[in-house]
Write a structure and sequence with these properties.
The chain is α/β, with parallel strands linked by helices. It contains eleven helices and seven strands. The chain has a five-stranded parallel beta sheet with strand order 2-1-4-6-7, sandwiched between helices. The chain has a two-stranded parallel sheet with strand order 3-5. The termini are far apart.
Length: 240
């Protein structure tokens, strides 16, 4: 049994390693604090890794050093690291879960998951299964319903909601970043590439921005953001 633990928080990484060694006493466990610590695999003629490093389980934090401009799972695969991935992360929102699962993870586990449940979920992944907490799964179902008409909603020319100025609820940091790129006229694909997000995740962020600003489309959202003084702030955050 070979297990790789990748987390840049030493205390949590050590606790995770301890739990794994208790669950699999005979396992060979490797730990890294950055994806830059992965061995450099030589590339074959078609660009794929010429050498593969196979694990029975990979436990991965989602926001890892060394994954800038990409996602951690892609970085692992490019380095020739193969095996089922369980993402254990500080994030608990459905948008992050959607991004994680679309990138190929078998499990999404918030770091607040009770230790006993975490151990059971990791064992399930190692045996070929998958796991998502019930509350996150329900949020994902709700998001799927919203995304069925999301493309039409972004470009619809229906009436805007009443009121100008501040949004109905504050924009998150990620929504501020997406808003700043909407102002440049960037496409969903360009925004996703710049922010290392899946295109569907960009669409969902855009939908939430439109709702919070009471806008009928992207152009209207940018106009309302300018009037509310949000755009200059989001541009500053995007450039910092």
């Amino acid at each position: 049994m070979k297990i790789l633990v990748a987390d840049d928080h030493p205390l949590f990484r050590d606790a995770l390693e301890l739990s794994i060694r208790q669950a699999w006493p005979d396992a060979e466990v490797g730990c890294i604090g950055s994806l830059l610590e992965l061995p450099a695999a030589p590339a074959s003629a078609d660009g794929s890794p010429a050498m593969l490093f196979r694990y029975d389980l990979i436990v991965l934090d989602w926001r890892m050093p060394g994954a800038e401009g990409s996602n951690p799972i892609s970085v692992l695969r490019q380095a020739g690291v193969q095996g089922p991935v369980a993402v254990v992360t500080g994030a608990e929102d459905a948008l992050t879960a959607l991004e994680v699962l679309r990138c190929g993870a078998e499990a999404f586990l918030p770091k607040t998951t009770p230790r006993r449940i975490l151990a059971q979920a990791l064992r399930l992944v190692a045996e070929g299964g998958s796991f998502v907490p019930k509350c996150v799964a329900l949020d994902l179902l709700h998001m799927t319903d919203l995304s069925l008409d999301i493309d039409e909603a972004e470009e619809a020319d229906g009436p805007a909601l009443e009121g100008e100025g501040a949004p109905s609820s504050p924009l998150t940091d990620r929504e501020q970043q997406v808003l700043s790129m909407l102002a440049t006229g960037a496409t969903n694909k360009e925004i996703g590439r710049h922010l290392s997000l899946q295109e569907v995740t960009v669409k969902l962020h855009t939908r939430r921005i439109l709702r919070k600003l009471g806008a009928r489309n992207r152009t209207d959202a940018v106009r309302r953001a300018q009037q509310a003084g949000l755009l200059s702030r989001s541009l500053d955050e995007a450039s910092s």
